[in-house]
User: Which sequence fits this backbone?
């Protein structure tokens, strides 16, 4: 856990104390199931609940001796119990507790992450509506292409985010599984009905087949969805970073009062949040890779996955949550320079209208090849000389004759927004 990037409520979900509390939660659910099946005396779970205490320091000290965290947990938690301790961890193995408790943690993390995504989605859609009718220059390969709607940038991000929310919801449902089936997953020392009852109390369902552990494809899938979501956040961050360049300056991430951009240059306003998100996206992708590598374990299990998951489960969930929250902060407080956006459409002296000119010539009877060749000739001259593309065309007698008074109309950016409403209607939302 990096304190700098750890936000509540996820930060508290991954403390050692909270981890042990989840382990106890699982153990108690099993004891309650034993009571229901008349294996443990009525009231056993209540006695355990009253006598169990989680002392993190004591557990860690015990672990130094036994060199096994679950055994240390059991010894510490049950030391003040009476006969009821016989039913604590009865028929279970360590991974029953650890894996099931991890599923609880991940489901709770995903609840928070999904909620955060939904708030980000509302912020993106609001900006998409606000800037729907603002013309901007579209860029391909980093080069000016044709005008488009500035709001479509936000709408595109919103659309992708909605798909990610659906993926996260599926992952949450998928990963809500537990395993209480004993040493190698064959229920030799515990009845499958106990597992079913206990997991139902925890809001989980049994994984269909387990070894000593729950198969790691669940976690690999979750981490891959995080990586896809991080890819969207990186796409947003990179776009804003490009738009914040001095020579572009169409948008800028928030710069709060008192903030400083450089220890040497007082004028600097750097896109540090967006750059931070770009770096974090690399981390999330690396966690996904570890998740894939954790899938292949020896026979019924080894513990090569265990050490890795102690890093990647808390860090991946907290990092993606941090990324979502910071992205929302950026979107809600982004500074948009409308005048620069409009001005930048014309910095190529009208070149961005070349396709409209070509199609207009085709419409009046010229072949597409001939139209393309003529328009490209003037376009390349405009590139090299910086002359007005429109004025060049007007001086060409043949083009001027064919297009007559249409030329001025061709060089207007609003034309490129004529079908924007149809795109927005696809989302079925009231504006």
Assistant:
């Amino acid at each position: 856990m990096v304190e700098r990037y750890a936000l509540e409520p996820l930060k508290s979900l991954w403390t050692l104390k909270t981890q042990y509390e989840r382990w106890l939660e699982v153990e108690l659910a099993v004891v309650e199931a034993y009571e229901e099946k008349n294996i443990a005396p009525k009231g056993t779970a209540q006695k355990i609940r009253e006598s169990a205490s989680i002392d993190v320091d004591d557990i860690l000290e015990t672990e130094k001796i036994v060199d096994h965290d679950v055994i240390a947990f059991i010894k510490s938690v049950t030391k003040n119990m009476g006969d009821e301790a016989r039913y604590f961890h009865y028929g279970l193995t360590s991974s029953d507790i650890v894996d099931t408790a991890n599923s609880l943690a991940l489901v709770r993390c995903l609840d928070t992450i999904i909620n955060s995504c939904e708030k980000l989605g509302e912020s993106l859609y609001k900006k998409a509506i606000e800037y729907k009718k603002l013309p901007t220059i579209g860029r391909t390969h980093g080069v000016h292409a044709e005008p488009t709607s500035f709001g479509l940038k936000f709408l595109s991000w919103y659309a992708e985010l909605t798909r990610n929310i659906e993926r996260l919801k599926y992952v949450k449902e998928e990963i809500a599984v537990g395993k209480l089936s004993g040493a190698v997953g064959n229920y030799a020392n515990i009845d499958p009905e106990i597992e079913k009852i206990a997991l139902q109390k925890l809001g989980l369902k049994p994984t269909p087949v387990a070894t000593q552990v729950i198969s790691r494809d669940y976690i690999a899938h979750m981490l891959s969805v995080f990586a896809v979501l991080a890819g969207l956040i990186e796409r947003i961050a990179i776009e804003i970073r490009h738009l914040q360049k001095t020579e572009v300056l169409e948008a800028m991430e928030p710069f709060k009062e008192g903030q400083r951009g450089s220890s040497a240059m007082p004028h600097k306003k750097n896109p540090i949040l967006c750059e931070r998100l770009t770096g974090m996206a690399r981390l999330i992708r690396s966690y996904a890779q570890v998740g894939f590598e954790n899938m292949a374990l020896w026979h019924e299990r080894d513990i090569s996955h265990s050490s890795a998951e102690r890093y990647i489960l808390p860090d991946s969930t907290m990092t993606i949550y941090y990324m979502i929250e910071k992205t929302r902060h950026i979107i809600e407080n982004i500074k948009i320079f409308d005048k620069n956006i409009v001005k930048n459409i014309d910095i190529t002296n009208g070149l961005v209208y070349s396709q409209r000119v070509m199609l207009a010539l085709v419409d009046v009877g010229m072949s597409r090849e001939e139209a393309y060749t003529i328009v490209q000739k003037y376009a390349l001259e405009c590139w090299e000389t910086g002359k007005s593309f429109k004025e060049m065309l007007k001086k060409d007698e043949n083009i001027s004759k064919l297009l007559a008074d249409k030329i001025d109309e061709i060089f207007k950016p609003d034309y490129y927004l004529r079908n924007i409403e149809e795109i927005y209607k696809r989302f079925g939302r009231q504006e």
Q: What stands out?
A: The domain at 351-410 is CATH 1.10.40.30 (Ribonucleotide Reductase Protein R1; domain 1). The longest helix spans residues 94-130. DSSP finds 18 helices and six strands in the chain.
